[in-house]
Amino acid sequence: MGKLTFRKEERLSKEKLIQELFDKGSSFYLYPFKVYYMPNPDQDYPCHQIMISVSKRNFKRAVDRNLIKRRIREAYRINKGLLPVQNKLVIAYIYSVKDILPSAEIQERLVKTFKRLEHVEKI
RNA sequence: CCAACAAGCCGCCUUAUCGUUCCCCGCUCAGGCGGGGGGAGGAAAGUCCGGGCAACAGAGGGCAGCGUACUUCCUAACAGGAAGGACCCGAAUAAUAUUGGGUACAGAAAGUGCCACAGAAAACAAACUACCCCGACUCGUUGGGGAAAAGGUGAAAAGGUGAGGUAAGAGCUCACCGGCCUGAUGGUGACAUCAGGUGCUUGGUAAACCUUACGCGUUGAAAAGUCAAAUAGGCCCCGAUCCUGAGCUGCUCGUUCAAUUUCAGCAUUCGCUGGAAUAUCGGGGUGGGUAGACUGAUUGAUCUCGUCAGCGAUGGCGAGACCAGAUAAAUGAUAAGGGCUCUAACUCGUUGGAGUACAGAACCCGGCUUACAGGCUUGCUAUUUUA
After folding, report:
1. How far is A63 from A112, CA to CA, in rounded Å?
2. For A30-67, what is each residue's pLDDT tens digit?
């Protein structure tokens, strides 16, 4: 099991890559997330890259959006060791529920998404 | 005492574990690792005003457009603030004085427009009822005139009150109050006070157009600047090859279409004339510029303390401090305990339950507005309750 860190390198910040993910990547829905994913074109990248998004339409106030993003980020940080590292992925989590869920439930659901991401083919 | 109001201030804490970003120090196998320190607000919000900063535009002036509107001051600036004036509403009083609150507070005899309903009439004027005078006759009606004093309508109706006067009335005349004009005095000024004159019909609305005075270039950090990989293409030089080649227009040949051929004219580059060149491939150089990175961008109209000037907003001087700097966006997550408020129970200081607000920096400042659980300080006591 790796270290429980979440550094800058693990965040998805390249505009081109994000655009490619939404245009060409696959997706599935698992309550409460809509997950976009695809293999990273640069397989030499040291880790997975993820981004977290909470819609302004569902949560009008910035405080609520920040709270949910922080909870998801913590859930990923603590549990990311469960995701195999052989195939480098690019993942986007979109929180698409109108209620604020407690941390325990978010963690449980996030781990379930990992099981589906295990079977993604390499390019 | 409680409670309400006004102004100002604060706006959860501790520990553990796992993290995040920036700065400093040390180590390093250059990937990082270890230690120390800093890390959301009073509104960070709404984006409603005003500036700094940047690019572009710009002689000056005018028109148009937008904004502001009692005075003086403060300020980088403001639609903000301070002090004051006038008016309006209230408290208080015999009446002042005093005191709380409010005001989009320039101009309505420059012009245009509008004024619902009601009412006779809502504005170059105008008589419904009632009143007075004169005339007519069928003798209680009618015709003419006077008159804004009375009635009723309305948000608003011809300066108000009293007296004289009159057929009845009317600033018709007079006194007081109000208005307008002129002057004096005080005040930087808005204005105030006083004196004199003037009978003084001529509504309201300018958050209706408008007029006057003053101010304003446009855009907005996704601004702007610096460095700059790969690929393609531009320009220059050298070499090689083909052997005269790019582009536009017209004609012609040809074709399913497209490409292509011939001829003529134009074009571009070598500063101009003359003359020449315009292709392809390879190598080197060069400027523009994309991804990306950096600057902008956190030391500032800054904060704290003291002191001086001023009624005050605020300013001067001196000393000290550095107080977030992220960028698909950090400032956190989880657990335990404790505060605080409300509430229920009883053994009356314990236990249980619920709540702990509004809200998250995005270039930076000055304001305004709106949201806010709970608490603290100061002022005040009109009203209510208790003694």
Report:
1. 27
2. 888 888 888 877 777 778 888 888 888 888 888 888 88
Dist CA A95 CA A99 (whole Å): 10
Full set of structural domains in chain A with CATH: 8-117 (3.30.230.10)
Which of chain A's residues 27-66 bind strand B, using a 7 Å CB cutoff? 51-53, 61-63, 66
If DSSP codes are grouped into helix, strand and coil, which group holds residue A62? Answer: helix
Distance (Å, whole) CA A23 – CA A25: 6
| pTM for this prediction | 0.73
**pLDDT reading at A123 higher than 60:** no
By C-alpha distance, which of A51, A53, A52, A114 is closest to A87?
A114
Cα atoms in the Cβ-side hemisphere of radius 13 Å centred on A119 = 4
